[in-house]
Design brief:
The complex is a heterodimer of chains A (328) and B (182). With 328 residues, chain A is mainly α. Chain A is 39% helix and 1% strand. A two-stranded antiparallel ribbon of chain A has the order 1-2. The N and C termini of chain A lie far apart (157 Å). Chain B folds into 2 domains: 8-119; 122-182, Arc Repressor Mutant, subunit A, CATH 1.10.10.10. Chain B is globular. The chains are: A mainly alpha (328), B mainly alpha (182).
């Protein structure tokens, strides 16, 4: 049985080799494979090669030049292979999949170097430095403190000093150096200039004026002022007649205080009141006036007259003994 | 036993450096194994021109996947498997074409029959045509390619046990056919 099996195997092997050896493939197999590996020609090139006789030698020359260029590139690639292997990832195991990202390593190294240099420059320029005298210097105080008058740290957009570094007289502690420019920290001859509330010349707008006229800045404020007439009415409607009224004249002193008082003081006449004596009274007391004024409309008065009742409550105080004929 | 070109990786192929590019590897493998692969494909598809196309397609596919292979043994195994699979696809497509194509008159031989005539000179090859495709592939790879069971299993994409089974059944069927014809 095994002998017969071996006989069949030998016969089959012989027959297959005989049939196979009779097959002879064509000799241009490698050219056909290379032609398949090459990208298909563009339509224009194929059309030129098919129709134009002049394009064929030209295209063959271009192809030869391209082949030479590719060979040169290949040789240069072989020359640069050690460099690529040095900086590229390993081609074993999982590193083979990251071979396309090998150029990221030198790029990451360059980015890290740039970051370190930038950080060092920033630290050298912006961070607090210790001067030769041993004082702490803050670079962001250099520019603004030099423009200040008197060296006092300003609040509105000006430099601010650390509170522990100033003496009560405005000067710095001896031997402590200066914060910012030294000129701004020197004691001024005007005494304690570091209290802006006591200084009369804090700003141009706060300059006291003894003239009865009010500054435009003060008159422009939309404050509900009352008419300084001798017959004060209780109408809280803002009127613009107080702008030139001498009753709201600001007194020498704090401009802010004068302005605040002028807004709320219903002075009955030409005011010579000293500053600070005027008490704000948002709702001035209604005094009986003989005239029919106020916010009571004529329709209300007519209605009250027609019904025989009183004046509406909202205008009761306003009416008062306004109409002598009605009282009689 | 006559030793002809074999599909087993030989010494000449193992000398292919791993750092060769795809073009150079294709050239080396073509010089060494193209003819044997074409003959193997011709035994499977029973057509020389079709066998050449199958092998050339396999080389093109190997060129595209050379970065993944980078080994001559792997490349040859890939080529064998690709040839077997593409030959199987050709036979499958041919069955569909033959089923739908109009049949020629009986007195007019087709071109395919003319191409196959060269391969059907022996009764063994004629009996081989009657076998199922998997059994035929196993016999061709075993007795023409001189491959081991593991290599046949890798080329066909089946297990070694399946290779043994296909080979045994194919030999039994072939013997019965030959004994019946005798």
């Amino acid at each position: 049985m095994s002998t017969l099996q071996h006989d069949y195997e030998a016969i089959l092997r012989r027959s297959l080799h005989a049939a196979g050896d009779s097959v002879e493939p064509a000799g241009d197999g490698l050219q056909q494979i290379r032609a398949r590996l090459r990208k298909p020609r563009p339509f224009v090139v194929a059309w030129l090669l098919a129709d134009c006789e002049l394009a064929r030698p030209l295209f063959s020359a271009v192809e030869a030049a391209a082949d030479w260029y590719l060979q040169v590139l290949r040789r240069s690639g072989d020359a640069l292979r050690p460099f690529a292997e040095r900086f590229g990832p390993a081609r074993t195991g999982a590193g083979r999949g990251l071979a396309r990202l090998g150029w990221l390593r030198p790029a990451a190294a360059m980015a890290m170097a740039i970051f370190v240099v930038a950080t060092g420059v920033f630290a050298a320029l912006e961070l607090p430095q210790v001067s030769e005298t041993g004082a702490l210097q803050l670079p962001f105080l250099h520019t603004s403190s030099s423009a200040g008058s008197g060296g006092r740290p300003r609040v509105n957009g000006s430099a601010t000093l650390l509170p522990g570094l100033l003496l009560p007289g405005g000067s710095l502690a001896p031997g402590s150096g200066g914060i910012g420019s030294s000129a701004s920290c020197s004691p001024s001859p005007g005494g304690n200039k570091h209290s802006p509330a006591a200084s009369p010349s804090t700003s141009p707008s706060s300059t006291p004026s003894s003239s009865p006229s009010q500054s435009p800045s003060q008159s422009a404020s939309p404050t509900p002022t009352t008419t300084p007439s001798s017959t004060p009415s209780v109408t809280p409607t803002p009127t613009g007649s107080a702008t030139s009224d001498p009753g709201v004249t600001s007194t020498p002193g704090s401009a802010e205080a004068a302005g605040a008082i002028a807004l709320t003081s219903p002075s009955p006449g030409p005011s010579t009141m000293a500053p600070g004596l005027q008490v704000p009274q948002p709702y001035p007391s209604a005094s009986p006036t003989p005239c029919r004024s106020g916010s009571a409309t004529p329709r209300q008065h007519v209605a009250a007259a027609r019904t025989g009742g009183g004046i509406p409550s909202g205008s009761l105080a306003l009416a008062g003994p306004a109409d002598p004929a009605r009282e009689s | 036993m006559r030793v002809t070109e074999t599909l087993v990786a030989d010494v000449a192929l193992t000398s292919v450096p791993a750092d060769w590019d795809a073009d150079r590897a294709v050239t080396a493998l073509y010089d060494t194994h193209y003819r044997a692969l074409v003959r193997l494909a011709a035994l499977l598809v029973r057509d020389v021109s079709t066998a050449e196309e199958v092998v050339q397609d396999s080389f093109v596919a190997m060129h595209a996947g050379w970065r993944r292979l980078r080994d001559s043994d792997k490349a040859l195994s890939y080529l064998r498997q690709s040839v077997v699979n593409r030959s199987r696809s050709v036979l499958r497509h041919r069955v569909v074409v033959d089923r739908n194509a109009p049949k020629p008159p009986p007195d007019m031989p087709s071109a395919e029959q003319g191409a196959i005539a060269l391969l059907e000179r022996s009764a063994v090859v004629s009996a081989l045509r009657t076998l199922p495709p998997r059994q035929r592939e196993a016999l061709v790879l075993r007795y023409y390619g001189d491959l081991s069971e593991a290599q046949i299993a890798a080329a066909m994409g089946i297990s070694k046990g399946a290779v043994k089974s296909h080979t045994a059944r194919a030999m039994a069927a072939l013997r019965s056919v030959l004994e019946r014809d005798e």
